[in-house]
Amino acid sequence: MSEAPAPAMSSSRPYLVRALVEWINDNGLTPHIQVDARMPGVRVPSFAVREGKVTLNIALRAVAHLRIDNEAIAFQARFGGVSQSVYVPMNAVEAVYARENAQGMVFPPDSEPNTDAVASATSTTPTATVDADPAGDGAAPPVKKPPHLRVIK
User: 102, 121 in Cβ contact below 8 A?
Assistant: First the structure.
């Protein structure tokens, strides 16, 4: 007798993203998401995209109207003093981590719609970080680059 195939499950990525953002916020740290800006449906400021990727600060103090549902992350933020809508489909989220200590998770590319394995966030380095300008003072948002350290023997 053959067993019936297991029912298909929805992606675990949106649930993990919400849980990680809550965990990071509960610990008083700053949640960031790394996004593949080349994925269909991604709306982010083009000036912030480096090598097809962008890292966004999604702390509640940096954005307005943050919504994280099963399909996407959406919010309003000020970039260079100009309010913009940001929309990131869930499959474009590559990582969620705390800015201060890099604790979080990296998601593999979706090879199948319902497959989500996770790894340590320290295995990847964000390409650029965009902090929204909640004060609206018009200052250009800082772009953070990975450290340039080398071992000297």
Answer: yes
> Tens digit of pLDDT for each residue in 46-78?
999 999 999 999 999 999 999 999 999 999 998
Residue with tokens 């990071």: 24
The values of phi and psi at residue 77, to 5°, are: -150, 160
* SS3 annotation, 20-86: HHHHHHHCCCCEEEEEECCCCCCECCHHHCECCEEEEECCCCCCEEEEECCCEEEEEEEECCEEEEE
pTM of the model: 0.70
The Cα-based distances of 110 to 23, 60, 88 in angstroms read: 24, 28, 15
Q: Which of 145, 141, 130 is closest to 37 using CA atoms?
A: 130
User: Checking DSSP bridges between strand 129-130 and strand 53-57, what pairing results, if any?
Assistant: parallel
Taking alpha carbons only, the member of 6, 9, 7 closest to residue 113 is 9
Closest CA to 141 of 65, 95, 83: 83
The pLDDT tens digits of the residues spanning 92-125 come to 999 999 999 999 999 988 754 433 333 333 334 3
